[in-house]
Amino acid sequence: MRINTNIASLTALEANTQVNKNLTNSLEKLSSGLRINKASDDASGMAIADKLRTQASSVGQAISNGNSAIALIQIADKAMAEQSNILDIVKTKLLQAGTATTSSAGRDAIGKDIAKLLSQINSIAEQTNYNGIQLLQGGTASNSASAAKALVFQMGEKAANTISSASGTQANITGLGLSGINAAAEGGANSITSNAANGASNARAFLTEIDAALTKMNTWRSDFGATQNQIESAVRNLSTQQTNIKAAESVIRDVDYAAESANFNKQNIIAQAGTYAISQANQVQQNVLRLLQ
């Protein structure tokens, strides 16, 4: 019998050390709610879970992009709706100016009214923007001669996952082809005011232009509406996709509390038993001393 090296105690200590390590790992999982807290817990699982997390974050940003795009389109649509109302009023004013029952003084008033309404169309086009981005014309100047550029919305995690709005929107006097009506309303060429001998007939002649302007406006609004429907569909799909991705990540990364609690209780009992075993192993060594009595 030997007492210099307590083999039984060392064996029990080694086993108890490993059990305590397992117990610590179990406590870490229970306290964090994660099955994978470091790469050594599950190297391949961590790599997959991290990739899924990145994908979910990217999809989440795409959803935010889509919601912002919808807000932008709604701003443009509401502005064009008001412009469309103004065009309706202008048409009724032209019809009023084109009938024989309207006096010369009445056509003067109508001309001033139309000029103010068309000026408001320019103001709406100039002022309608989203975060400084012009939506209804190409520049910030009144009655800008350039059309608004197509807007590209990033709606996915890949570079190719984009949705574009239609280009060519120029919802001002120039873009709507209303320069002639504007000049006539102010008493210029083909005037519809009392200064023109043919004011009534001139007013009737401009009805074709106002109808063409309404058609343009409806086309632009239709393009924006179609783009909004496409974006809303993409947002719904991305929301479902994000939920499924997060669920897949949860299966890999999150801890199963029922299973881990059972494992913790098991390791805790074994740790207590290990401590008792070490105590007994040390007690056995003391029995050797009886040989010296």
Question: How would you characterize the overall build of this protein?
Answer:
It is built from seven helices and four strands. It has 293 residues and is mainly α. The strands form two sheets. Strands 1-2 form a two-stranded antiparallel sheet. Strands 3-4 form a two-stranded antiparallel ribbon. The chain is rod-shaped and about 145 Å long. The model has no long low-confidence stretch (mean pLDDT 89).
What is the strand and helix layout of this fold?
Layout: H1 7-32, H2 43-97, H3 104-127, E1 129-130, E2 133-134, E3 152-154, E4 162-164, H4 179-185, H5 199-205, H6 207-253, H7 257-286
Antiparallel strand pairs: 1-2, 3-4
Helix pairs in contact: 1-7, 2-3, 2-6, 3-4
> What is the rounded Rg?
39 Å
Q: What about the largest sheet?
A: 2 strands, antiparallel
- The arrangement of helices and strands along the chain is HHHEEEEHHHH
Give the strand tally: 4
Query: Runs with pLDDT <50, length 5+?
Result: none
**Portion of residues within helices:** 55-70%
Shape: rod-shaped
Helices, by number, come to: 7
Structural classification: mainly alpha
- Distance from N terminus to C terminus (CA atoms, Å) equals 15 Å
List the strand order in the largest sheet. 1-2
Task: Summarize model confidence as the mean pLDDT.
Answer: 89
Strand content: under 5%
